[in-house]
Amino acid sequence: MVGGDDSPGVVRVTGDLQTDIERVTGVRPAVSEDAVPEQKDVVPHATSAP
Length: 50
Description:
globular; 36% helix
């Protein structure tokens, strides 16, 4: 999940992580914006503020 007010770098890194997970597992995880997905298995992704 990324927020609409996240910096472009955070959005890019989230997409990079999504792609890396797909390369390793063969499954492309969903990334939602501004809403927690309603599913059982959610992987949190935290960033540090500057």
